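tmp note - Hemolysin family protein
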Amino acid sequence: MTSVLLFCAASLFFALAWLLSTAEAAFLALSRQAAEELTDHPRRNLLRKILAKPTQHTYAIRFWRVWTESLAGIALACAFFYVFPHPLAAAGLAALVTAVLSILVVGFASRQYGQRHAEKTVLFTAWIVRFVTWLLGPVSSWLVSMATPKGARPGATFFTEEHFRDMLERASETHQIDDAEAELIHSVFELDDTLVRSLMVPRTDMVTISADSSAEDAIRLFMRSGCSRVPVIGEDNDDVRGVVHLKDVIGNLYSDELNATNVLEVARRARFVPDSKHVNELLQEFQRESTHFAIVVDEYGGTAGLITLEDLLEELVGDIDDEYDTDTPDYTQLEDGGYEVDAGFQIEHLGELFDRELRDEDVDTVAGLISKLIGKVPIVGSVAEIDGLRLEVMTLEGRRNRPGKIRVTEVEPRVSSGFDPEDSADEFVDDFGGDDGESTMQRYERLRTERPDEHGAGEGNKASRGTLDSKELGSEVLDSEDGSVRKAPRTSTNRESERH
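out:
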């Protein structure tokens, strides 16, 4: 009879633990919007008190859950003592059953149910949560203060950007959110680390108009380029005097009050931003000032390029094309498996074409990479190699003869012939050296001593001495002027004498 009562007590404690675990999972899974909607329920007072101090109630739930699980394990151990006479067997079996029930029932099943039925569970367990928190009294507040790091605000959520990114990736992998939505959220986070220089239109690609141009010239430029805003420059691109808008020029031409004949008269004041500014800051400034266009300057005050609101939005949502944009590919695949790319093609995109990791801190484009590798301005035929890729300039464009098209192919691995020039040179000298490590100079002195008639030191023996040296000393000959030994070129005659 006692064992039956103990088993019933253990079951009751496990049921309480399951209920508390379900309540905890439901409150954690409840969204803010759902919580605000539930405040209109008859139990809204209980819910408001719980939501006002969520951390304190959460610690109270966890405390009582652990306490009930412990009591359930003790009750099971006592019950098994009555069934099994051996105490070790009873304790081991009780520990095993407690662990299995705690993991499967209290840990997994309860949380799954609470997350799926969060609103219904919150309404049902609100009074239980308030009761266990009241029963614990000031202990719950003490637990919160003990668990809060020093200097942190009590109840603060320690949720970093890394945690959110990890949660976002897991949600995308389980298809809880769409891949496009996950990519958009990632793009928002990356705005903090993106600089204006990486999104701007480079100085060399800017469409500009001279300050002394007429309004008709501006209209023709707008029609040809498809731009609605164009910088007005003076002597060069560093002398930006304003920005002319298409609607301002048209309004001037068809207005009775305005009769401006020069684009500078209808141009607006240009806005300048440094190339080191973060994109998220510039986006907020555009929104606050109702501007869509800015001139980017470098650290020396020169014009580095321009950036528009469309460039910033494309970084978030991808390319935005209107009915006037033409889809012209900036690379073409060749028959041999290579690609012909534009000079301004991004290095990272080139690496993706060849399944490689190409990055460089100094340059962003393929043309810039070639210039860095060869150390000079590239011309037609300039070749550079990096990471198994061969880059060759095919055409030049523009008034300044900048690289236009670049051919990129994979470099075939070279087959080693086993010939090492340095090793062969050493072996050649060793073959023509003297016996027992005798050097060439020592051998010459020995031959001169043994055959003085043939190797005299006089001036009349220069020719014979040169002949002897070329035949018997191999690749080294004696300089008759100072008596030093120098290397001689290996002619066909030398090689024939070496064979015989």
